Fold Ribosome-recycling factor.
Amino acid sequence: MSTADIKKTAETKMGRTIESFKGELQKIRTGRAHPGMLDQIHVDYYGSPVPLSQVAQLSLLDARTIGVQPWEKPMISKVEKAIRESDLGLNPSTTGEIIRVPMPALTEERRKDLTKVVKGLGEDSKVAVRNLRREANEHGKKLLKDKEVTEDEERRLVDDIQKLTDRTIAEIDKLVQTKETEILAV
C-alpha cells in the first residue's frame, strides 16, 4: 500500500462518514414533512420486518402532512400501528385507503432538544473522522517502519491527512449549523 492509496482510502471513508451524517440529519424532523422521515420505520409483512417504503407509497399531501398508501388493503392497520409505535411521536389517521401522518408543530423546548441531538451526531461524526485520521497515520508509520517510504513522504502523508481531516470536520460543522438554523426557524 502506497501513501497515495492511504490518502485515497482515508478520503473515501471520510466521504462515507459525511454521507452517513447527512442521512442521520434527514431523520431529524424540523416541523416540515418529508417522506424520508419514515425511512427507518419497519412494518410486519407476513412475519418479516420490511421497510415502510417497500409496502406503501409515500407522498407529501401538503407541507405538514405525509400520505402513506399501502399497496395491499390488509396492510393499512399494520402500517398505521408501525407509524404510531415508532419513536417519532407521530399520530397517523386513516381515511379510506390513505393514512395521513400530520407533523405536529415543534415546541421551543423540543427544538432545543433537537439541536442538542444534532450537535451530538456531529460530535460522533467528528470522532469517526479523527479515528480515520489516526488509522491512516498508523498505516503511514508502518510503511516508514518497513522502509517502504522515506521520512519526508511519511511527513507529507501526515500533513495531507490532517488537511483532509480539517476540511471534513469543517463540512460537518457547516452541516450542523445549517440543520440547527433549520430547526430553530419558526
In short: Helices lie at 3-27, 75-85, 108-145, 151-184. The domain at 3-27+107-184 is CATH 1.10.132.20 (Topoisomerase I; Chain A, domain 4).
